[in-house]
Specification:
single chain, 114 residues, mainly alpha, 57% helix, 0% strand, globular
Amino acid sequence: ETILHCCPDSFHDILCKIGGFYDEATMKEYVSHGVSNFVVQTLLVSARDKNQISKLVKCLCGIVEDGSILNAKHRNVDKTANDDDEDPSSHGKNQRMGIIWRALEMGASKGSAQ
């Protein structure tokens, strides 16, 4: 998280490209993962300019529109990643509202109305 906040703009953009954060399919995997979604949240609030925000929002729009961000399941990281291992108390709860919150924060802080 510190690297994303403190690195130079050019390095931040390279991390986004190499990490696949500008690719909707890869971003969807990150968002649905129990740990990497926190990296996505940090990336969103550390976005550098409107061009970068535009690329990130483009990926997020598809994820929000298809409903997958609302259907992300919380998994117990101590168990295997089988569908049978879902925490029963997480049914009906949205586990990824942090992504939406950080996307809104990103747009508001950088002046993007997307």
